[in-house]
Fold each of these.
Amino acid sequence: MRAGLIIVGIILLVAGIWIVSGHASYQTTDTLFQVGSAKITATHDKGLPQWIGIAGIVVGGLLAVGGFISKR
């Protein structure tokens, strides 16, 4: 259990830092115009909100510290 907490905590820390640094994004596709079966679409890249990265850093840090401190 202790090693699992440390590993998950480190993964969340790295993922949170990656998101906060601005490298995480996802694509959305919007339909701009549609006539019958013909349509014009646009694909946009959107970044993940920074609060998700901050939450990942905090939770990952707590899990990693909890794994190191746990004596079981």
Note: The radius of gyration is 19 Å.
Amino acid sequence: MSTENTVTEVAGILERVRFDDKGLLPAIIQQWDTSEVLMLGYMNDEALRRTLTEGRVTFWSRSRQEYWRKGDTSGHAQFVKGAALDCDADTLLVQVDQIGVACHTGARRCFDVDPLAPVVGSPST
């Protein structure tokens, strides 16, 4: 694929995305081969462009107001394997090859650190 085609395709994707009122898109990060949900981050249009064209996941930090890539300081990098918008184009799923842990706490997944005990439903109730 040529760079020109990639730029055109990414521009078309950015036109379809429904960013929130702060210009952000929630991005669910999933391990590509096990389907583990690793974390949730946020992307603005530039972070999404970088993620789709550079092969590494880039986020927009809401607290620091800057771009960041998982692994640049920790070594626990996320390499893009696939991506998809949901049916409303307001949430992104990014499938990655996670090197090391995904959570800043040192846990494999961010959702490992505070498990809840909800009532489990069933179709018969």
Note: The beta strands are 25-31, 37-43, 58-61, 66-69, 78-85, 92-98.
Amino acid sequence: MSYTQWLHQQCPETQTWSSVDTFALIQQAKATQPYKRLEILLMIVWIFFFTLLYGFIGQPLLEVSEQGFLWSAEAVCAVLAGAFFCVFLEQKMKRRLIQKKLLELVKQHQVAQKAL
């Protein structure tokens, strides 16, 4: 579901707004998000998730053999699972942050319209 559709469902009065105003509001909500804190938080989650999976596997990350260093299949799976989980979590969190900011901006817009 797009942000426009979500906004129209949450705030029916926005259906009468022009698409330019709605688009500008969505762009403003996307531009003011604290992504750096989110990225740091997700890095910590990824390290925790990887460590947890790695502890369950009990295999070394790199195996030394005659052919050189080899990644263990379990470690590769743990890295990929951790990366997938964090990307999914990041998208969900960004979406919720943008939706929260959109609601705040709509309220500010309504207050400004009443003041006029």
Note: The first helix runs from residue 3 to 10.
